[in-house]
Design brief:
- With 411 residues, the protein is α/β, with parallel strands linked by helices.
- Strand 7 and strand 8 form a beta hairpin.
Amino acid sequence: MKDRFTLALTGQSLIKYDIRDNTAPAFRKVQSLLREADLAFTNFEGTILGRHGGWPLKGSFFGCSEPVVLDTLRDIGFQALSLSNNHAFDLGPSGVLSTLEEIEKRGFLHAGLGRDHAAASRASTAVLSGRPLAIVAMDGGPGPDFMYAADGKEGRPARPGVNRLRISQRIEVDGPAFERLAAIRDQVGYTAIDLANDSQPDDRPSLDPETEIAIARAVFRRSERCGRSVTIDEVDLSRNLASITAAAKDGSLVVAYLHHHHWASDWYQIPHWVSGVARACIDAGASLFVSHGAPVLQPIEIYRGRPIFYSLGNFIFHVRSEKSTWTAPEVWESVVAATTFDADNRLVEIRLHPVVIGGEQALGDGVLERRLAPHLATGARAERILRRLKEQSAGLGVDIQVSDGVGIIRV
């Protein structure tokens, strides 16, 4: 086994086009970074329209891709993918089956999607350069219950889908607001039967009748303040932590992955519950924790000598120009995090190479369709990306040294 092993981590890859013919030198430099690593990892943010067909299960934010995009990811340099995300079920179970089939044809190490619940929850393992590796990938939603994998039982077949970490969101309101909501519920005659009709059978919230009210799919909790909070399902969390522990017992370098859209109102802030999940994964044996969902770069933390990447933002982001949500430049900026471990899977250093999707020219012209490939950022843009990440991570006790357009974390 090699004394050192470098894992290149990127932002999520929402890819719809084959970008291999892009000859921009700055894109080729990004490819070199991925190929130089022992393993390159991204989240494939999508579903494949393949042999099993499928039907759109979403409206304007629906997306699917042809199998050729997997060839693109492979040729760019990726060998490992997480598949647990909000777009994995955009074509239903048929899309899940096609995605798995096409990914398995190409030999990717992958996790987070399966033909049933047991398969979706399982750690994916491999040995590379003599190093045992494992990935446990989960999705925190929010998403409909039917997108998550289920095992078969008598009279009910298995459902292909995503590995779940169930997150229940509560809207917190003060006492007077809670009483008004209770009165409205009673005036309209909203009952437990109505709640069942508004929910999937496995998705009915468990309520404390003294402090919680459910109307439609919203749950309101009496509190001293107004705001939002989340509750993590302990069964789901325990199952995923057990998968991490089992994978770590043989000395594997274990990647724990989470995708979620339970963001803070400020994209750059880390929700408290995510920190708890990240640390629990490392306590269970993960060598590192990686997350996507928030479409921007978030701080890096080192916990017990192991890295937590709270969000690596976007790496490939093929969205249409009418989606005006994506105007902030930070949506198009990220880093390739080359993370090096020693023979005992202890972190040695992280080298952060800033990237901008489409390069400087595309970022300035406002046409999203030209922002197809990640370019290595240089000059003032590179300094801006690294300075922001350095300032954010400093709040978590991490010192990022910046030298020649590269951020360096040494342990």
